[in-house]
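Re: that chain you flagged

S.,

Sorry for the slow reply, it's been a week of failed gels. I finally had a moment to sit down with the sequence you sent. For the record, here it is as I used it:
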Amino acid sequence: MQDLIQDGSFIYIFLDNKRYWIRRVQAGESFHSNRGLIQYDDIIGKPYGLKIESHSGVIFQIHRPSPTDIQIAMGRNTQIIYPKDAGVILVEAGIGAGSRVVESGTGSGALTGILARAVGPTGHVYTYEIREDMFQGAKKNLEKFGLTENVTQYNQDILQGIKEENVDAVVLDLATPWELVNEAHRVLKPSHHFVSYSPTIEQVMKTCTALASEGKWGMIKTLEIFEREIMVRENKTRPTTWMVGHTGYMTFARSMAKLDK
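Prediction finished late last night. Pasting the C-alpha cells below so you have them in one place:
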C-alpha cells in the first residue's frame, strides 16, 4: 500500500541539484518559485515520488524528505554535523531502535533529529544545550518536523552533570569534551560508546589523552570522513570539482566495566 501525501505532510520539492525546497503541504495553498506555481491540492492524495508541472510548464519532482534533507533544511546558527559524519556516528556507536542517548550540545537540533529517528519510539534522546538562543531554536526545529516525542531537552551546561544513567551512548559536540570523560563513563552501560565530534586536532589530542589516562576506556580511535560526488556523464564521468572535505574529527571509545575492588 502506497503512503500518500496528506494535508500537513512535509514534502521535498526538487528541481535540480541547486534548487530544492522542503515545505509543509496545506490544502488551498500553493508553492511559489521563479519557475512557477504548484497547487498543493494537486498533490494531496497522491504518492510521493511524483512529477508535477508548474503553471509555467516546469517539471518538479515531489519526494518524501529524508533525514538528510531535513537536517540541511533546519535553520542553523552553528555548524551542523554533516550527514557523512552523522551516519558514521550511528553505525560506530551502535545507535539504533531502543537506544537511550545523551547528546550535547544541541545546536540547531540537526543531529538530535537524526538520533531521534534512529532510536525510534522505544528509545530516547536527552540533549543538553547551555545557550538559551540555541535551546529555543532547536526546540522550534524539532517541533516543526515532529521530532519531540522521544526527545528531552535541557537548557543547561552538561558539565554540571548528566541527569540520566545506564545509557547506551554519549555523543558530544563541545569545545572541551575531555572535561566530560569521567562523567560519561559514570552514566554509560559497560562496553557502550562515548563519541566526541571536534573540529581541531588539538581537541582530539586532549580528549584521547583524557580517555587513556585512567583505564576506564577501551578501543579508542579517531576517524575523519571525506565525501566526493561523481558526475556521471556519457564519455566524461569524473569527480566533481568540489568535495566535502574536513568537517570534523570523530573520536570513539568504549566504556570499561565498573568492577568492585
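What I noticed first: The two ends are 58 Å apart (CA to CA).

Talk soon,
D.
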